[in-house]
Specification:
Layout lengths: L31 H5 L13 H4 L11 E7 L1 E9 L6 E2 L3 E3 L2 E7 L6 E8 L5 E3 L12 E16 L4 E22 L4 E9 L3 E13 L2 E8 L2 E13 L13 E8 L2 E8 L5 E10 L6 E8 L2 E2 L7 E5 L5 E11 L4 E10 L17 E11 L4 E17 L1 H7 L7 E17 L1
Antiparallel strand pairs: 1-5, 1-24, 2-3, 2-4, 2-24, 5-6, 6-8, 7-8, 8-9, 9-10, 9-11, 10-13, 11-12, 12-15, 13-14, 14-17, 15-16, 16-20, 17-18, 17-19, 20-21, 21-22, 22-23, 23-24
Length: 422
């Protein structure tokens, strides 16, 4: 019995630790204001969430403030086997990523310090019982929390810089798959927590006039690691128990760097337009390896003491555009859209990330209840284009540790946030 597919869902194990933002594991939800505008913000200085999108822009806010937001992601995924037959549906799941940003400094000063807490990645997927890919994945749950202290300084009235320390403080995963046996089916469950990880988020912001601004930002690579994760096997016959000795696993996932450029255009006092491009170095993600252990030493799980699965991702771009129109001093309307290119090549699609190019549409509204206190609502719809991979694709690439068929996924994400400036 091979267990090469045991952890093919491992590509998602450490997604919660990822700082990447293009395709693949993407759950890009910086704030309710940004979401309503298609996710733009690298070239704008509108809100405290600049700490995430471009730390260099935070100093240009010239105000203290706190904002908090939460979103709910509803995924609808369908799979049809390549040979035809019944279409399988993903069981409805809900995930609620959140964000919290605060910045402080002299109101008329050039220096500003901030702190942010956010959950940019995390998901829950559960396939129907009996689906064709159950020997690769039946269920997965991911959680992660980032903390980022940030500083920003305005070198001149037009130019500012900033940097933050990205800290993966909490990350966890639980994934399950079915094991084919001679006369029955068993089950393997993996449960682990990521170690604390560190990265850098830095940016430059330049505003040559009241009608134009430009931003550049960089988020560094993080190596997310699971050490001593639990391996639990059930339903295995006594005759096969000797092939499932390992009860722990180690894994490391390189989470690639991202480069971001943004442009802000303010034709009038009421209208703000943003354009962003995100470039993610996914090509660093070549393969994923899991080492199984017992009492700290290599141990067998199925056919060997480790499992390795090809990924061979490609670098990817995301293009964003969005705008905000202030109807009056209290009400702001927002619209946006994005085109997100997948890093996953044909024949490399896995059940935990049935990814393809994404078309994204967003809308939002902001309302100032008082001069200092406001509320924001947002909605994002992601259409992940239909993706088919054949048995020939899998054989040609040597990726037979996954399932052939057609995936179609849509994601709806409503959200709400509160902000207070002082």
């Amino acid at each position: 019995m091979k267990v090469k597919t045991l952890l093919l869902a491992g590509g998602a194990i450490l997604v919660g630790a990822s700082s990447a933002n293009a395709g693949g594991f993407q759950v890009y939800l910086p704030s309710q204001q940004s979401i309503g505008m298609g996710g733009v913000g690298v070239g704008l200085s509108m809100e405290q969430a600049a700490q995430f999108m471009n730390p260099g822009a935070m100093a240009m806010l010239r105000q203290n403030g706190v904002q908090v937001g939460v979103s709910a992601t509803f995924a609808r995924l369908a799979f049809r086997p390549i040979a035809g037959g019944e279409q399988r549906q993903l069981e409805n799941t809900t995930v609620t990523p959140f964000n919290l940003y605060a910045s402080f400094g002299p109101k008329e000063g050039k220096f500003r310090a901030g702190i942010s807490v956010y959950t940019p990645y995390g998901s829950t997927l559960k396939y129907e019982d009996g689906w064709e890919g159950r020997f690769a994945l039946s269920e997965i749950t991911l959680r992660a929390i980032y903390v980022q202290p940030t500083v920003s300084y305005a070198l001149t009235d037009q130019l500012s810089v900033g940097a933050g320390l990205m800290i993966l403080t909490t990350g966890s995963v639980n994934l399950q798959r079915v094991v084919p046996l001679p006369s029955a089916e068993g089950k393997i469950e993996l449960d682990g927590k990521t170690k604390t990880g560190f990265g850098v988020n830095a940016g430059i912001f330049f505003k040559p006039s009241d009608k134009l601004s430009v931003g550049l930002s960089y988020r560094s690579k993080i190596d997310a690691k699971v050490r001593g994760g639990d391996v639990t096997v059930s339903g295995i016959t006594p005759a096969l128990q000797g092939r499932f000795v390992g009860d722990k696993f180690d894994a490391t996932l390189p989470l690639p760097a991202t480069f971001n450029v943004g442009l802000g255009i303010m034709p009038t006092d009421k209208l703000t337009i943003g354009l962003d491009v995100n470039f993610t170095q996914w090509s660093e993600y070549r393969s994923l390896r899991f080492d199984f252990k017992k009492d700290g030493a290599p141990a067998q799980v199925g056919a060997g003491t480790f499992s390795e699965s090809k990924r061979s991702y490609e670098d990817a771009l995301t293009f964003r555009v969005g705008g905000q129109y202030k109807v009056n001093d209290k009400l702001a309307l927002r619209l946006g859209g994005a085109y997100d290119m997948t890093p996953v090549k044909d024949g490399y699609v896995t059940p935990e990330t049935p990814d393809n190019n994404r078309i994204i549409a967003t809308a939002g509204v902001g309302y100032n209840i008082t001069e200092n206190f406001g509320v924001d609502a947002s909605f994002m719809f992601q259409a992940i284009l239909k993706r088919t991979q054949t048995e020939a694709d899998l054989l040609n690439n040597g990726t037979t540790d996954r399932v052939a068929g057609t995936y179609r996924t849509n994601v709806s994400i409503p959200g709400i946030g509160l902000r207070y400036n002082f």
